[in-house]
Amino acid sequence: MAEIEKVSEADRLEQANLERVVADVERTLLASPPGTRPFFNGFLMNAKARLGVLDKKIHDEEREKEQQKSNEVAIVQLAEKESALNSKEKEEYSGFLKEDFFTKKDFARLDHFYAHSWDRLSEDGKDQMSRRIWEGVRRDEYKFADLSKDIQEKEESRAYKLLSVSPKQSANVMRIPQKDKNDFIRAYESGNREEAGKILNKDTFKENMFHGNGSEPIVHTAAKADSVAVVAQAKTSVAAQPGNSAKPAPDSLGNVDFSGINLGAMKPADNASQGLVANLPRSPNGASRQC
Length: 291
Prior knowledge:
Layout: H1 9-31, H2 37-81, H3 87-97, H4 107-116, H5 123-138, H6 149-165, H7 171-174, H8 178-189, H9 193-200, H10 203-206, H11 218-239, H12 275-278
């Protein structure tokens, strides 16, 4: 599963400091001379863009944690439905459900489960396992032929039922050419399991068999894109403002505390505003006051 960028304590501290500084600068802006306002506006736009990135990052992590909690509850509920399994088997089954797909590292556990517990799963439970088996194939973690003979035979029986008995096939299964389906069904019904397994190794089956409830965390990709969009929009807005190169009055920011602000992350919006960081109040040693 794709992971979102982790939020550090420094991120949360920077968020709090930025919120404070933005509020201070907005108050200062109200009383500032007109000539200094383009500087203030440019700084605020950059600060708010950075704050937007941090807010989004923290929100995404919190949403991820909530989703994980929800998934854990759902997994427990699914495992409890498998009444034919004993408590140890339910725990093992729950472990499989926590995976979006299997890899070769799971083969030993899968072999044991398919040999001793799989037959007592409900139809939905078997579908849950098949989805993860085939998702591993789709992600090139292994080929169908790499699975043990026992797993192949049991998954072939699931595939046969899906392709020949299921009254309503999914859109993905409908994409498998009818000839490929017929070839598999013919080989399976004739008892030629070796040929049936070879047919299931085709890309048409790999891409379309047992697509289940989506577990791909596309929200994280979208979240990162949203963060980039926030910054891009802010940069465009600042660049459009005339007079961004205006210098602040010498003591106009003297009452604003910039400590704890990651100024390096607040990139100037355009070439005309390169003075945004350079003109911040400086500490006695000459460096901008920043953490």
